[in-house]
Design a protein that fits this description.
The chain is α+β, with helices and mostly antiparallel strands and about 230 residues long. It is built from eleven helices and nine strands. It catalyses: chorismate = 3-[(1-carboxyvinyl)-oxy]benzoate + H2O.
Length: about 230
Amino acid sequence: MRFGKIDYLNLLPFDIFIKGYPTPSSFKQCLNHRKSYPAKLNKDFFLRRIDAGFISSLAGYASWRKKQVTPCAIIGNAKVLSVLVLLQEKEGIDTQSATSNALCQVLGLKGQVLIGDNALRFYYKPQPKPEFVDLATLWHQKTGLPFVFGRFCYQAHGAFYQEMAKAFYKRPVKIPHYILEQRAKMSGLTRAQILHYLKHILYRVRPKEEFSLRCFYRQVRLKRATRPKRF
């Protein structure tokens, strides 16, 4: 079993959960070696270097059509804080996330795309700062729906990953103080900022989130937004 993981703060609760979840030792070893950013995991997934992971929603389209997805995802609940577009900056994509770049195209925005810790540091930095848009907020304003940034997809061992996903969103996760301290130092954020950010992230896919994905995929086709490729 080869699981790939995004090394971002939005999956910090999953990091805590998986340490206590019963898995083969080989799974845990692979988990520690397959941490990366979304675009890299997309490629690993396409090339079958990993069996499963939280894959960019855009890259997970084929898995969604094949029903090789779990009811678990990374969801921005009206806000996400970690996926922003700086409107007054020179236009530019973020090479680490295909879904964020496509969403920017779908929403008709031009500017510099920021994701992950870089976006959070910008969001929490004191004024003044350039005008920016939270992509989950704009999507919610236009559709009334939350936005699904990444989906827990799989290509093998479906029953195992389905059970894992359900166990994750059903079990409340408390982040230990020492881990918050570690991640605060690594990210350049405070513990309070990390906890505030995580309040805006949901993980369970319900009908509203499924409908949001359908709307996004339709807009990607209509706008001919750039999709991740195998090579």
